[in-house]
Design goal:
The chain is α+β, with helices and mostly antiparallel strands. It has one domain (about 5-250). Helices cover about 30% and strands about 30% of the residues. It has 9 helices and 12 strands. The strands form 2 sheets. Strands 3-4-5-2-1-8-11-10 form an 8-stranded mixed sheet. A 4-stranded antiparallel sheet has the order 6-7-12-9. β4 (about 100-105) and β5 (about 110-120) form a beta hairpin. This is Lipoprotein. It comes from Flavobacterium nitrogenifigens. Keywords: Signal.
């Protein structure tokens, strides 16, 4: 199965069911690290796994595949060449992302992971919004690799880390917000699709955490990791609710 066909079908699964999205960041002592987003769409596989596998021509065969966006872009190079230079530049940011997909109708499992390494968390600025650039690809009706609307929550997201403090900050893009008001029907549909979905942030640091500005943060035993769960509706409609600061012990 071609990479784009597989990814497009994954988009469809993500838009049809409640999913759990987990945003992971692992920061090393020198500031480098790993970023990934996991999607668990196993709920739909539980309901209709055999039918879905059949539609993909794999009714009795599990899918376990890994590829890079660079490979995907090679497959879609003709379509990408027709895009504006600005859009091509946005897509290039995703070249080093690795995509892993596991699907099993027997195990009722559908898992997807998008991950990349970074030299500094500042490199991740607006990375989730960049995923929505996929809608500009030919045949890319879905807004992002993790489902319709993901990443396109009308905000600009940035991360900062200086060894003393980590900040996750989303700022509403008023221009995009106003434009979205003309598409209330689509927005309502997205809201309905993700009404029971969750968005989790799971961050790991090289130092012990002194405090977190979000009172709902759960700490690991060594206090070097935090987990915070939000509703996906908040992620889409109130992205600023996901803002928080982390301060570290000296």
């Amino acid at each position: 199965m071609k990479l784009y066909k597989l990814l497009s079908f994954s988009f469809l699964i993500a838009t049809l069911t409640s999913c759990t999205f987990t945003e992971n960041i692992y920061v090393n002592d020198n500031g480098t690290g790993k970023f990934s987003v996991d999607m668990d769409g196993s709920a739909l596989m539980e309901m209709a796994g055999d039918q879905i596998a059949g539609q993909m021509g794999n009714a009795k065969k599990d899918i376990d595949t890994t590829f890079t966006f660079k490979q995907l872009f090679e497959e879609k190079k003709d379509s990408i060449a027709k895009l504006s230079p600005e859009t091509q530049k946005e897509l290039k940011k995703l070249e080093n992302f690795v995509v892993s997909t596991k699907m099993s109708s027997e195990k009722k499992q559908f898992l997807m992971n998008l991950g990349t390494d970074f030299k500094n968390v500042n490199e991740l600025q607006d990375i989730l919004q960049t995923l929505s650039t996929f809608q500009k690809l030919e045949g890319g009706a879905n807004a992002s690799p993790l489902g319709n609307g993901f990443g396109d929550n009308k905000s600009k997201l940035s991360y900062t880390y200086d060894g003393k403090k980590f900040t996750r900050k989303a700022v509403i893009d008023q221009e995009k917000l106003q434009a979205a008001k003309a598409k209330d029907t689509a927005a309502d549909m997205t809201k309905m699709m993700f009404a029971s979905s969750s968005y989790i942030v799971n961050y790991h640091f090289p130092k012990k955490i002194k405090k977190v500005s979000n009172p709902n943060a759960l700490f690991s035993d060594d206090r070097k990791s935090i987990t915070i769960q939000y509703s996906f509706t908040d992620y889409m409609e109130n992205p600023e609710k996901l803002n928080f600061d982390v301060e570290f012990e000296k």
